[in-house]
Protein 1
Amino acid sequence: MPVPLMLIMLSLSILVGILGKNRKWGFWAYLFASLLLTPLIGLLLVLASDSKKRL
């Protein structure tokens, strides 16, 4: 895989992690999920998950 494509995929995965930081799994879980699968599937996971419950 070319280096620019890897950097784009890493950047998108970090963005998915940032979007998921206030979700059920948190930043790291969504980051790793989007790195292992694809950023698009990671984004779908973020959109399908619930927000963290606030006390």
Protein 2
Amino acid sequence: MPTLKDILEQLVRPGRDPRSDTPAPILRSDVLKAEDLLTGMQLKGTVRNVVDFGAFVDIGVKQDGLLHKSQIPNGTVLKVGDIIDVEIQKIETERGRIGLGWVK
């Protein structure tokens, strides 16, 4: 029954993305593109997607960074919209990848 209710709700409001209800990322004025990032830089970011291997975090540049599950403290449950502190660990501009670490 709950699944049918969800289906009917989507038929009434097609294309609604639940992530649009989350707060906007907290942006720094000195970080506008991937080239502005430096390894070791600490930023606040908004979790945009949680997957089996970690979480994608919006840090204010075009590409979301990946916070690998090995970097997330045990017992921590992340959900879309959470605002967390992260550190830039690896930048691969040619591949469009940003590796993040958890800031304690």
